Amino acid sequence: MVDPLEEGVMTILLISDNDRSALACDLLAAKLNQRGQTCLTAGLSRDPNWESPFPVPQPQITLSLEALITSSLLEEASALGVFLQHPVKQKNFIESHRHLAVHKGRPAAPVFSGPLQASLGDSLMQELYEHLECDLLLLPGERQHKAIRSITQHWPDESPSPQLLTAGLWFLPERPPMGALNGGRASPPHTLLALIQDDVPSAAGGKSQFLREMMRWAEASPAWSVVMQRDCSWNKGDHWIPRFKPEEWSLPDNLIFAAPGQLLSHLASCSACVTVSSPWAMSAMSWRRKTMLVADYGIHTKEGTTSWFGCGSMHRLRNIENLDQLLELPDTNQTWLESMGWGVHDGVDRLISALDELNA
Prior knowledge:
seven-stranded parallel β-sheet; six-stranded parallel β-sheet; globular
């Protein structure tokens, strides 16, 4: 068997443990490989009991975290990108990697990681806390960098913080898939993509009320298609609304729930997008789809809306009587969008330079 890690070349191992981080690692690996870096993705095999909204790539190497930590892959890697879903697992993995390196008398490969969304406020501070063990913390935009720097610059020397790197929206597809560039068209047929979230709206009955609003819009605009798209994985057979009984709902013919694996294709082909606070609205905005963040739930951490303050795309549901009005909404605030990471187009090159310095 040929060792995939070439001697004498900086080799980067990207580690994931769920569908969202596997997609992000695959996107990053493709960009690193394009720049001549040797990069491998590693993670768990797909759980057949879970459905994903993404076309999830299979990691090149499928190993459990326990098997990976003792494998030769970590010894031969120049850097590790670790993107695990649960902070405790990530912390334990990084610490185990470093302890084993000390035990074997070799330097531990530097570890980089970061959030897979562009956050602000309490959410950003929580993400900082969850990544303190990293050597290098990837942040989307200048706003996140400045916010975290304003906090960590006052920390005492005995409380070291990761090196910060503004890397852009590397965890999102840079552009729509091939053949899907006709999204956002100005002529019919139109599609509204409703990005629905697992725990938002958080109030009891909030999801049911949101679905009723989408039904109202669909009935008022029969020429449109309304697609309800879950934005994160779910247990096979589970409904988005707890205790949902399809026979109790009379859904309009032009409103459907998306099948698994279709989020990116729907984002690419939709004319407009609506959500409370899905991180995937950032792709809709970046791809210049008309995007509406539902303002009815206010600016609250529990609703995930604090990160969207200032985007210029927050509107109330009652102000929309028919879906054609969505096409007249103002574009997203471009200054805000660029400050949240869209303005950084050389993030991968910055990452390579930072890893070279850490390995020097």
